[in-house]
Amino acid sequence: MVEKKKQAVKKKKINSDKKNKADKISWKAGNMLYPLPAVMVSLTDKTGNSNIITLAWAGTICTNPPMLSVSIRPERYSYDIIKETGEFVVNITTKELTYATDYCGVKSGRDVDKFKEMKLTKLDSEKIKAVAIAESPVNIECKVREIMELGSHSLFIADVVNIRVDGRLLDEKGRFNLAKSELIAYSHGKYYELGKELGSFGYSIRKEGKTDNKMQNTAKEVRIKKAAGQSVKKNKLAEKQPNNSKKSNTGKRITGIK
User: Fold this and answer.
1) What pLDDT, on the 0 to 100 scale, is given for residue 19?
2) DSSP sequence for 228-251
3) Residue 172 CB contacts under 8 Å (≥ 6 apart), including other chains
4) What domains sit in the chain, N to C, each tagged with a CATH number?
5) pLDDT attached to residue 208
6) Are 183 and 92 contacting, i.e. CB atoms less than 8 angstroms apart?
7) C-beta of residue 94 within 8 angstroms of C-beta of residue 183
């Protein structure tokens, strides 16, 4: 009896393994690291002409010193400009900029003025000559440190020399809330708006009973509003109470109790 049960369990495990293997399909090696940021990279050539190229192959590579990288095909119009000037600006994209983001990725600067066609505003950078995009909530000014020729793309490794942010995204305490700008991401040929917050960094190991600052502030605001509401309610009730007091012979007011 025991032996039959063991065989049944073993058979069930084998069938389960087969099913799991059947659910997975092997594909040819390729790019499948999604989602990605769809950023608009702006640049200015040595004659003062500016262009925008949309890139998804972009990311942070170092904290100290702050560095990022972008990968560009050598045949792209912006490739030689960045290679010659050694400068560019990474502009974070939003829901409002989605159309322009796509346009700047499929049209070439050889043929059109993307700033003009998309009605985007050129913003002078503080540390480099390449212009930024004023409509973007975050402009990251970069200087190329190294170029690595990898194959279909070349990797531009750059130092972040300055960052400019939209002041409207700062709260009264100076904290930056980028989520308010309605960020977008790129995944397998499509653009998506980022959704609701699922957690904050470190929440998986945070001690029970502790909350992050955002949650604490929200809870505090709720308590303050609740207390204020109760106070107003008490005042209104007090106003409705009948005045049952009367004056004594001495002229002093005596409270009547019913």
Assistant:
1) 59
2) HHHHHHHHHHHHHS----EE-TTS
3) none
4) 36-193 (2.30.110.10)
5) 72
6) yes
7) yes
| Token pair recorded at residue 211 | 């909350």
d(CA 227, CA 176): 29
Q: Which residues contact 211 (CB under 8 A, 6 or more apart)?
A: 219
Mark the ranges of the chain whose per-residue pLDDT is less than 50: 219, 222, 232, 244-258
The strand pairing partners of 160, in sequence order, are 142
Query: How far apart, in whole angstroms, are the C-alpha atoms of residue 183 and residue 92?
Result: 8
Task: Give me 187's structure tokens.
Answer: 């995944």
What separation in angstroms does the CA of 173 have from each of 28, 120, 170, 176, 177? 50, 30, 8, 9, 11
pLDDT at residue 149, as a whole number: 97
Distances (CA, A) of 213 to 159, 180, 217: 31, 17, 6
SS (H, E, C) 44-70: ECCCCCEEEEEECCEEEEECCCCEEEE
User: Residue 160 in contact with residue 154, Cβ under 8 Å?
Assistant: no
| Tokens 């995944």, residue located | 187
Read off the amino acid at residue 121.
T
25-63 burial string, b = 16+ CB within 10 Å, else e? eeeeeeeeeeebbbbbbbbbbeeeebbbbbbbbbeeeee
